[in-house]
Amino acid sequence: MRNRLLATLSIVLLALAITGCGSTASQEQVAPTAPTTQDATPVAADQLKVIATTTIVGDVVRNVGGEAIDLTVLLPIGADPHGFEPAPADIAAVNSADLVFINGLELEHFLEPLLENAGGGAPIIAVSDGITPIDGTEEHEEDTSHADEDDHGGNDPHTWTDPNNVMVWVDNIQQTLSQLDPANEQSYAANATAYKAELQTLDGWIRGQVSRVSEDNRKLVTDHAVFGYFANQYGFEQTGAVIPGYSTLSEPSAQDVARLEDTLRSFGVRAIFVGNTINEALAQRVADDLAIQLVQIYTGSLSAADGPAASYLDYMRYNTEAIVNALQ
Ligand SMILES: [Zn+2]
User: Fold this and answer.
1) Structural domains present in the chain
2) pTM (two decimals)
């Protein structure tokens, strides 16, 4: 019974999703020729040239590498890491890099073959290496008709929703940078220690925040299954989600919407959390019909520099506050 409800919820919530982790802005605004990989700041010739795929990986790499590295973040703000397709300028940047950091666990599904064939010979390091992955397919089991190449496969790649996992990222980044650039080893070690202390503080702060939400209300319904690691760490249940990237069911029938609303009612959810990639009119209608909140969160990308989630730490604080305020 419960599985059937989950399947229904997944199918209809698919209609809310246009893309996976990113934002609507990315797909339209980023022309293929956008200079996403150009770095305006002058660079010392001996600096390690480092690429990071997503804005979130890039922010953590920047915190460890500091001034010692020449960092290029491949994906623009708001881009969907599941479906991103690199432009020629991106391929050139990868070709001339000394080192490439990716999230791993097939988050960069479309990017990995390209990175491997780029020909530059730069090592490709998955920052999530060493993290025990959780199963990301459970909520899709009865929905195989919709499984497409954007599906995450067996493992949930969204490791960063638990800051304890990002501490593993930091260790991986520090070790790799130190190996390739031993001259700056001490700087990387100091940066890593300082940043891990901030992640520790963040973890404690999240625990304090979520303690304001009763256990009955710790249910996360999202447009796509981003919060698995967060849910595991902080005692939430990820109640409904969609397959990232699935977009063809853009106009669900009135019956589909009614079924979704029945399902959400039966779960007693108090809010739907959405990245900015959804069919907002539809999501808003469902929220209005059920008198529950539609809450904006950040998923696969940080916000722009002047937004509320411009760093990973701010991203986690913003999302945690959004979740706690809606569910408490
Ligand atoms: Zn995702």
Assistant:
1) 2-23+203-327 (3.40.50.1980), 27-200 (3.40.50.1980)
2) 0.81
